[in-house]
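Suppose a classmate hands you a notebook page containing two proteins, each written out with its sequence and a corresponding row of structure tokens. How would you begin to make sense of it? This section walks through that situation. The first entry is reproduced here exactly as it would appear on such a page.
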Amino acid sequence: MYRSTRPWKALKVAGLGEKVLRQKCRLIKDPTSDEMQDFAMNAMFTCIRNNAFGVSAPQLYRPIRMFVIRDYSTVPDPSQLSAEQHMSLPLMPYFNPRIESRSRKLMGEFESCLSDPWNVAFVARPHTIGISYIDGFGKYQEKEISGWEAQVFQHEYDHLEGKTMADMCTQKGLYMSKERYKRCEAYWKKVENLPDFEALAKASQLLSNGGYWGPEAEDSIEPEDLNIDALKSQMRMFLQFYDKDVDPEKLTKEDLKNLAERIVYKLQNPTDNVSSESIEGKL
């Protein structure tokens, strides 16, 4: 990118409910123009001022296909970085980005967003994607990205399509306030006796109705690629809906496995009004 002689400035961020966040953004004719280069620099400065992983043009009231995100190309495992280390990474602009391919394998993380600063949402996305874009020097680029970098890229890409993390959240109960998220952390730390991943993930998928995570995604996600806190949070919801009087801290691993299996059975057989005892007898 060229060096602007004009001072950088933090731009106003659009909030949920504003029309610009629902528009499908248009292509940029000349990413190397002074206007676009200045806008990209101001977008990066806005990220810096807000301690953000990235920001898209529509979030800054420009319905154009461009966003900036942190550069993870030199980081072997971004999931091991502290918040401070994430924020110390340089930012890169992506003009006219495209997702050319998506892996069947999924990953999932809780996401946050500058346009929805009070909430977080658990979103499962393709673990690896092939992308193309115009870089800050006006050169066409292609590459494959995975893991955390792919998660961030897809979050910002959704904004260019008029979608938010709330739209892509796998389950309504996993779109929550940051305050509730912090309260859940205390619960997560106490839940150690999780059932085997397959039983829990199956129940999770059947309860999901958003994004890429659902019954059709069976066998496409591995334990190491899913934020385990999300599954623990779902177990808490399972207990609220199916065994309200049970203390989760006293459940054994086998108890939780049976609970997950009962949920799977109930969701797969919605017209079968049998009791929990007879359900367990069928498993």
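The notebook's second entry, a different protein, reads as follows.
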Amino acid sequence: MHQNLRCNEQIRISPVRIVGENNEQIGVISTYEALKMAREAGLDLVEVAPNVRPPVCRIMDYGKWKYQQKKNVKRSTEQQLKEVRLRPKTDTHDREIKLRQAIRFLAEGDKVQFTMQFRGREQAHREIGYDTFRGILAELGQRVKIERAPSIDGRNMIMIVSPVKGAFDGVVPKPQAEAKAAPQPSGGEARKAAEPSRSEDAQTPAESPAASA
């Protein structure tokens, strides 16, 4: 049903087909009688199918229904929070993979929480976390909003960003495929490939006439 429907006195057409509060079919009656039934039940008369003749109206709690619809819409559009974990020792290559993963989440409309985990003596070098997160923000640029600036949470450093609407349209990187190694010759094939090619007529020193003389 549409979120904004005609209800009660807004319904001008008569007669109407009535569906009761519990989906029971009441039948075709005048709009006046239908309104009277709805009021006696402490409910509303709502036009749910205006394009048929006679229009279909339902006796229901319209305010409660609208509230539930808003909740459903909010739930369906609510962003999920995805986490990308890093370590101070994460190398450049792995960091790029993590960033691509984050971009994929952002392109899907989700918020991303970057978490850098510090262990033991690493906690004395938290500037690594700030530097890493600054680099990530520089890569993402104006495509994200900072929901939570880099900050310490126990032994972790956390940063949360959300996508700017439309900023990642058409930019949905797939997870990096495993690089397919070229098939390597095995066993005897490898040894055969490593041996220098010889002409069928070539003779080894042991086979030469001089050596056999």
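A careful reader of the second entry would note: The chain has a mean pLDDT of 82.
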